[in-house]
Amino acid sequence: MSVLSLENATLRYTGVDGGHPPVLASVDLSIDQDEFVVVIGRSGSGKTSLLNLAAGFVKPSSGRVRLDGAPVTGPGAERAVVFQDDALYPWLTALDNVAFPLRLRGFSRADRLVRARTLLDQVGLSDAAERHVWELSGGMRQRVGIARALASSPKFLLMDEPLGALDALTRSRMQGFLLDVWQANGVGALLITHSIEEALLLATRIIVLAPKPGRITSEIFTTFGRDHLAGTPLSEIRSSPAFRRLQDELTALIHAEEEGIAA
Amino acid sequence: MSISVEGLPPIMPTVQDIDRQSEGDTSRPLPLVWISLATITALLFLWSLASSYGFVSPLFLPSPVAVYQALESLAVTGFVDATLAQHVGASLLRIFGALAVALVVGVPAGLAIGASRLGKGILDPIVEFLRPLPPLAYLPLVIIWLGIGEASKIAVIALAMLPPVILSTATGVRSASADHVNAARSFGASRLQVLRHVIVPSALPSILTGTRIALGAGWSTLVAAELVAATRGLGFMIQSAAQFLVTDVVIAGIIVIAAVAFLFELAARLIERWLVPWSTRR
Question: Does the beta-carbon distance from B183 to A158 stay under 8 Å?
Fold first, then answer.
């Protein structure tokens, strides 16, 4: 089983003003391949920077990012990224978008289309294969984006607010979908979100980030996602007293941090 | 000109279009095509009025009928040893030859400027030197270098076409979305793969726009290029007609150039819709 880890990672954007606190300060986080880690925190707490470090889009100013002990030097197919604004290629059909990572690896057209169709099936979009990106709804686009990320056979799926742009109904349906994908594909998940409810529903572990400098302040283990995969409907989980209580606690925790900064 | 083709967006949205969109008005106003046709008819009417009542000497402004007859005789018997089709053919060959050269040189140059610091450093001064120069200024030099044959004509037109092709390609490269590039990198794409599979398709709409601008620059340079030692071509035809004060052929030539350029514009937009359908939809 693979492990993706940030070790004492600090990220500081140099240039304009050296006096700014680092975006992330001494972050230690280790994610196993069977985990669903959700990072939550208010704006400016460095959530996206943390994901960019894990993805290899940026290098830490100090500290390390490692995958199975080997230093991460840049982006790589074993850490596929899903973007908030789907980032699908409008010049490709849904199917060709999903096949894209396989094309990069030199699979023949026939091979990659077979694999891409299987993945589109898995995300429930077999009928949309030949459609253009602009003909798909926001929820469908994100499912194509996730299928495309899975096509690169990643060990980890890094998701930057993938449901942030969706309407509430689609969003709650997609939350169940993300859990299914996570379970079915044996990938480790790192998901960034603003929504406390979403964090509680999906995570096996919630990481709370506080801003200035961005740092981890709490870590909470939850089982609601696994309960759902075991058969409990999401609606029932959302209305259960245990869920409500944890939601209140987490909200209070994040608010307390804000007041701590204001004081 | 804002004649719109069925199913294609108008070249420029009019104030009226914007009003309608914002107010959700579904009543159908007079189609733009009709307004444009009415303008053309009115201009033709004024023109024939001016010439038939002798306001203007036929030497300066021949009547529409005279121009039409000139067009007919151009098509059948020709002017200065070539028919209209041969003149048009000669000019089109130069325009397309030059466009091919401009694209083969300009697109890679634009990619280099947009995608690499080194490329930008090397090529920027050359483009910025070339861009503001009027083609007539370097025409004599090109003739000294390449002689008075086809090569110098194509070279001059190509030089005029290069800056718009290069600059719009570079702009297109810079317009590539960071997420699109990062997505490819996260799936393990190499620098070359990012260029080929993400940057080039992202830049394509802009490259096509640059091609349209280049065609415009090409037409304006064509006439200058055909000034020297040409025996065929629309520019040459107009020049020699002007020397003999055959004004109806001059006007006929101008109308033919306008018509061909307009057809080019329509073709370019059809090609755009076929090649980069996403650029107008997204």
Answer: no
